[in-house]
Write a structure and sequence with these properties.
It is built from six helices and six strands. By secondary structure, it is an alpha/beta fold. The chain folds into two domains: about 35 residues; about 120 residues, Rhodanese-like domain (Oxidized Rhodanese, domain 1, 3-Layer(aba) Sandwich). Strands 4-3-5-6 form a four-stranded parallel sheet, with helices on both faces. Strands 1-2 form a two-stranded antiparallel sheet.
Length: about 180
């Protein structure tokens, strides 16, 4: 009896998989078998190539190169905002960057908002070309009324690879 129930359940699972695969194959706009979720699109900007995620939209804030990020880092009216988790921030972040984890935005926003004047340029970044939190955070800040935002998609990974200074001080707790 139990063997019959198990066989019927297995049959239903196999049937569901076959029907799902078949439907996906004939459906317009079906889910691709091999995803390009980590794909990096490279856009030409004059003599410079700028990496951006495949999910970037034309109305997103601009993406900047390492060279542009380095130049902006020296400007006191530019604030770098790290979209990663506090643990990643402590392992190494761009000096002077403020921690505002995209995935914990509501927990941190009250403490961070006073540190982000709307008349300053903001540069968001995260881990590197496999991380889109800088893009998502830039969109969220734009929705909150910030107008001058850039996205450094190369992030902490590219900053570190080019031997730029990194800070390893711990971030303040959420809400502080």
């Amino acid at each position: 009896m139990i063997k019959k129930v198990i066989m019927q359940g297995l049959f239903l699972v196999v049937l569901a998989v076959v029907l799902g695969v078949g439907r996906n194959m004939v459906a317009p706009g079906g889910i691709p078998w091999v995803g390009d979720w980590g794909k990096v699109v490279v856009a030409e900007a004059g003599d410079t190539t700028i990496a951006k995620p495949a999910s970037a939209q034309p109305d997103d804030p601009p993406f900047i190169t390492l060279e542009q990020a380095t130049a902006l880092h020296n400007d006191p009216k530019v604030i770098f905002v790290d979209a990663r988790y506090a643990e990643d921030y402590k392992e190494g972040h761009i000096p002077g960057a403020i921690l505002l984890p995209f995935e914990m935005f509501d927990d941190y926003w009250a403490g961070v908002e006073p540190k982000l004047p709307k008349d300053h340029k903001i540069v968001t970044y995260c881990g590197g070309s496999d991380c889109e939190m800088s893009l998502f955070l830039a969109r969220l800040l734009r929705d909150k009324g910030y107008k001058d935002i850039d996205i450094f998609y190369g992030g902490a990974e590219q900053w570190r690879e080019h031997k730029m200074p990194m800070d390893t001080t711990a971030a303040p707790p959420a809400g502080a």
